[in-house]
Amino acid sequence: MKPLRIALTKGRLEKDTVALFEKIGFDCTALKNKGRKLILPVGGHQFEVVLAKAADVITYVEHGVCDLGIVGKDTILEMGNSFYEVLDLGFGKCKFALAGPKGTDFFGGYSAKTIASKYPNVARNFFESKGMDVRIIKIEGSVELAPLLGLSDAIVDIVETGSTLKENGLEVIETICDVSARLIVNAASLKLRKAEIEDLAEKMDRAKEGKL
Ligand SMILES: Nc1ncnc2c1ncn2[C@@H]1O[C@H](COP(=O)(O)OP(=O)(O)OP(=O)(O)O)[C@@H](O)[C@H]1O
Ligand SMILES: O=P(O)(O)OC[C@H]1O[C@H](OP(=O)(O)OP(=O)(O)O)[C@H](O)[C@@H]1O
């Protein structure tokens, strides 16, 4: 049987994923000593971990070239989902928030607002749910710069500790929703390799709860 292929978001979610796999008892030596290699065996040759950017994790799972993926809820909310989200992994915890310059009355006044975000769809849905018409500008990173430079009135972005906002004179105006890492599964894989996938998800769930 070929290994189950798991797309894993490079960066912040890697360490916690390795810790969870090791709690289950999967050998992560190759993943921990990966160098520049992008496809690594985990748990002997039971699994193959593919290291990818967050949005690409979803693309690979949707197209079925990876059976499973580990990705933040932020990326799922932004990109939509034609896959199954089977488990909240309980790490990579942060929030989506609307934030702006400290002390400004964002919802006061009648002028049309401009919002900068790396997550334009999340921002659009948030303002649509409020019945507010805003202009949204897509920014690729360090979104906090946009209001500081006068490009936008506010931002929709991830907040974890709040340090980036604080150090740049910004504050949360409204929290939008919680974000954490999720286990996602390709629809066909879930049918064809149901037992293996359910077994893995159950192990990850138990390890997360400290029951292994
Ligand atoms: N400050 C944060 N605190 C906690 N989790 C975060 C934080 N920022 C991002 N995340 C989560 O970790 C995931 C990966 O973030 P990471 O910063 O590693 O890469 P990225 O922001 O998607 O892309 P880039 O490589 O361009 O920085 C995010 O999609 C989100 O779910
Ligand atoms: O509340 P904090 O703990 O300060 O974390 C929030 C920051 O972390 C993320 O940025 P990241 O470091 O991923 O860089 P980016 O802005 O380039 O995406 C996010 O976009 C915020 O800027």
- The largest sheet has its strands arranged as 2-3-1-4-11-5
What compounds sit in this structure? adenosine-5'-triphosphate, 1-O-pyrophosphono-5-O-phosphono-alpha-D-ribofuranose
Low-confidence stretches: none
The CATH topology of the largest domain comes to D-Maltodextrin-Binding Protein, domain 2
CATH H-level superfamily of the largest domain: Periplasmic binding protein-like II
Tally of structural domains: 2
Cα separation of the termini:
26 Å
Strand segment count? 11
Rg from Cα: 19 Å
Give the percentage of residues in beta strands.
25-35%
Q: What order do the SSEs take from the amino end to the carboxyl end, as H and E? A: EHHEEHEHEEEHEHEHEEHH
Overall 3D shape: elongated
| Secondary-structure class | alpha/beta
Q: Give the mean pLDDT.
A: 97
Largest sheet: 6 strands, mixed
Second rung of CATH, namely the architecture of the largest domain? 3-Layer(aba) Sandwich
Number of helices: 9
Portion of residues within helices: 25-40%
Description:
There is one protein chain. The chain contains 9 helices and 11 strands. By secondary structure, the protein is of the alpha/beta class. The strands form 2 sheets. The protein has a 6-stranded mixed sheet with strand order 2-3-1-4-11-5, with helices on both faces. Helix 1 (12-24) packs across helix 9 (194-208). It has 2 domains: 4-92 and 180-208, D-Maltodextrin-Binding Protein, domain 2, CATH 3.40.190; 94-179, Periplasmic binding protein-like II (D-Maltodextrin-Binding Protein, domain 2, 3-Layer(aba) Sandwich). The two termini are 26 Å apart. It binds adenosine-5'-triphosphate and 1-O-pyrophosphono-5-O-phosphono-alpha-D-ribofuranose.
